[in-house]
Amino acid sequence: MASEQKDHTVLIITSMNDRLKINKLYTLSSEKKKFVFNLPLKSSIRIGKRDYPVQLKSDEKFGTYILWKNRKYPVEIVRSRQNRYEILFNDISYTFTVETPFSMKRMKVIDSVKGRSGQETVKAPMPGKIIDVLVREGASVLRGEPVVILEAMKMQNEIQSPVNGTVIKISARPNTNVMKDDVLAEIKVK
Amino acid sequence: MEKMKIKKILIANRGEIAIRIMKTARKLKILTVAVRTSAEPNAMYLSHADEIFDNTESESEIPVFLDIEKLISIALQTSSDALHPGYGFLAENAYFAQKCLDNGIIFIGPSPDAIYKMGNKTIARKLALRSGIPMATGSEGNIANSEEAVSIAEKIGYPVIIKAASGGGGRGMRIVRKAEEMEKMFTIASKEAEKAFNDPSVFIEKYIENPKHIEFQILGDKHGNIIHLGERECSIQRKHQKLLEEAPSCALDKLLRKKMGQMAVRIAKAVDYFSAGTVEFLLDSDRNFYFMEMNTRIQVEHPVTEVITGIDLIEQQIKIANGEELVIRQDDVKLKGWAIECRINAEDVQAGFAPDPGKIEKLNLPSDKYVRIDTGIQEGSSIVSSYDSLIAKLIVSGKDRKEAIKNCKMALDKVWIKGTKTTLPFFRLLVRNQKFQEGSFTTAFIEKDLDRYYYNSEYEEMLAAWLTTKLFVEENLQEKNTGSDDGMKEEMSPWLLNKRITQF
Q1: From the candidates B232, B257, B297, B428, which is the catalytic residue?
Q2: Residue of chain A whose alpha carbon sits nearest to that of B351
Q3: pLDDT tens for residues A133-179?
Q4: Which domains, from first to last, does chain B contain?
């Protein structure tokens, strides 16, 4: 145990039930921003050359919050599924996936294949229900063209194509529920 | 001073405005009656009333605040001699105001005739035209079909806007930029108008591009005296829903204020207006202004005017309803300092301002001397989908606009709400936006000038990532390993207590 801490290795049981000895985790935002945390996870965050302690606390007046640099930030878990989390932090929600060095490697391989082919995905910006799919596979779409109608909180939202291109795959099915960031369609960039 | 005939007021409303009215009534030593509904049987406004009428057993399909017969009968049963409608619901229903009068109940608002004339946009347009009020050119009255619309549009020039005659709140409105779009837009606007207002009639006028929304607060008594209390700037809106209002507006100088104020008073005179009212104008980039509509009620954003004039508008409404003459003359009205109101709503700014109803679990609001809070929500209250999503109005003042914005920035960081998502991140962005600080924004600001709707400081995302990682580790770490680190285990406890994870 002690030796594990020394070389920063922690035994993790992933959702796949693999037993892995790992020394760091990659936490990726939905905009693909990468945060790397060494294990065991420290209760401080380094900015420049200084470590600033970060604490997760809870009390009657404020509920659960993070205390950092003498400021409190309200936090809440909105939902989680396997390695994916939606966190409410200071009234803003963030979606992250947590990857081990192994799963990270796997993802990079997949990404590089996708990258070469010039693909973009249309993702659900919020959880909701698919009302209608407006394009067919093979159709060409323009940037800003509505692809899917997603109903959330009784409001219908047009989900638009981020690029000019050709629809190569539609994963959205009418009358099904989707989670935030679920892939609705894939578009080959023109 | 005239004797107060009003002894007891039935508040035909809920939430913060019910409390706002009850506070002034108490100051004037008038009793109040509130209505308890099954939608919110424990709402905060009930604790401010002298008397509660319990309507929770009602099996009516119509919500009580929209039920004219029921409200009249409650007023009579509780021997209320007056009724205050607040805003929304029946506040601008001429028939309701008339029904109150017919039953000997004083309606705290304008005459049914004024409500009717201003509520019908085509009548209001004609009145304004006759009074020489500047207006966007448009159709004389309602238009019958899209062919007629096209022929008028060709005369006044595109773009034009189709509006519902009985409209308001942005519904039944469509902008048309070319003739080919007219038929489709005419049908949509007319259908939307029929659905929302039971009246499909529409008219068209020239569409003013990128205007500022400037409105004037009016006060009139039953003796023919009408004054204005300056303007409010309400250009920060999304889909015609106001989010932030301020008073005064940095777009007006003394001369323009005087000119617009005179016009506002003139349109109010055209309907012999009494009580508090609001005249809305559009102001274009060349400082031309156009009459849009008059709202014949107390407005959500009335506090910013109260802050800079020192006048209690609800008190004025009650005294006017009592038949008293206005004590304040136009020359007495002095605008002092600056006030900004942020509507903190239970909405998800990351999902297009979609309502996010839920239970307010924690609520901490600032109490600095430059802050006024109008709210009907307390810890444990629920934002229910049957009513609006307003949690609190944060009203901040300063000696000038710059100071008010600075104070607003500080106050926003002191508001602590847990349980629903709110519009707070939007306001945090707004007070840091250069265009907002300069005051050069228009009603198109949110849709055109912002590429995101929320603010987070530099390290917030990283802290959120740390938290996520911590959570992942806690869930996946092998048990015997956690035992080795007691400090971590202790820190985990808040999660275990508060975890509200939705497992898919």
Answers
A1: B297
A2: A126
A3: 988 999 998 887 888 888 876 667 788 888 888 999 999 999 888 88
A4: 8-108 (3.40.50.20), 137-206 (3.30.1490.20), 210-336 (3.30.470.20), 337-437+451-455 (3.30.470.20), 464-498 (no CATH)
What gap in Å lies between CA B210 and CA B293, rounded to an integer?
A: 18
Q: Known catalytic residue: B297?
A: yes
Same domain, A182 and A148: yes
DSSP state of B503: B
Query: Is A41's CB within 8 Å of B460's CB?
Result: no
CATH number of the domain at A165, please: 2.40.50.100
Q: Which of A3, A81, A54 is nearest to B481 (CA)?
A: A3
Residue in A closest to B460 by C-alpha: A89
Q: Indicate whether A182 and A131 sit together in one domain.
A: yes
CB contact under 8 A, B501 and A77: yes
- Which of A153, A158, A159 best tests the B interface by mutation, with the highest count of B CBs <10 A? A153
Whether A111 is covered by a domain: the verdict is no
Q: Does A94 touch chain B (CB under 8 A)?
A: yes
pLDDT digits (tens, 9 = 90+) for B228-264: 999 999 999 988 899 999 999 999 999 999 999 999 9
If we measure between CA atoms, which residue out of B36, B14, B22, B23 comes closest to residue B89?
B14
Residue A113 lies in a domain: no
CB pairs under 8 A between A and B: 176
Query: Does B481 contact A61 at a Cβ distance shorter than 8 Å?
Result: no
Read off the DSSP letter of residue B449: I
Q: Does some domain include residue A164? A: yes
ipTM of this complex: 0.85
Chain B residue with minimal CA distance to A126? B351
Dump the DSSP string for B265-327.
Answer: HHHHHHTT--EEEEEEEEE-TTS-EEEEEEE-S--TTHHHHHHHH---HHHHHHHHHTTPPP-
Range of the domain at A133: 118-189
Looking at the structure, do residues A14 and A94 belong to the same domain, yes or no? yes
